[in-house]
Every structure is written in C-alpha cells, then in structure tokens.
Design a protein that fits this description.
With 96 residues, the protein is an all-alpha fold. The protein has six helices and no strands.
Length: 96
C-alpha cells in the first residue's frame, strides 16, 4: 500500500480501520504476543519503509511506544557511531 493510498480518519490506531492497526492485531492474535509489542514492531516496519504515519498516529493519541522502541527512536534522532550495536531493534525478534 502506498502512503498516499490511505488517509487517517477516526481513531488513528484503530485495530479495524487502519492497515497498521490490522497488522498489529493480526500479529498479536497469530503469535500470541501482547498487542503493544506487535504495535511497536509494526511501527518499525513502517518507519523502515519511510512511512511515519503509525508512529505519528500513536503520538497523536498521547501515547508512547515501549522502552525499546523509544531508545531506538532516540538513537535515530541523535545517531552516533556504533548506535546500531548499542540499541539494536529487530522488529521480527520482538514479535517472534
């Protein structure tokens, strides 16, 4: 799905009405993992594709991602040599 193909309406993290909400809910159900863990993995997946909408949607609700993702985001905002070794975040590892 292209970024322009979906306009956020209503709850920006709806588990039914947003593609990222549906992905997080599906992963949670299929893998038996907490929805917030899956949500964070979905956010990273979208960020790696250059799409900030799921993260922006979460922040719009006044909520924050989990501590691992917060550290990852902080390292992205202020990168240093070796940051990827200090704060690794593998979205697949967080939901498997």
């Amino acid at each position: 799905m292209k970024k322009d193909d979906y306009v956020v309406q209503g709850n920006p993290w709806s588990l039914r009405d947003t593609p990222w909400g549906q992905e997080a809910e599906h992963a949670s159900r299929e893998l038996g993992r907490h929805i917030n863990t899956c949500r964070d993995a979905v956010i990273v997946h979208y960020l790696s594709a250059g799409d900030t909408r799921p993260l922006a949607a979460l922040l719009t609700l006044g909520e924050a991602p989990g501590p691992k993702l917060l550290k990852y985001l902080a390292s992205m905002l202020q990168p240093a040599d070796g940051t990827e070794e200090e704060v690794p975040f593998d979205p697949a590892a967080s939901v498997v």
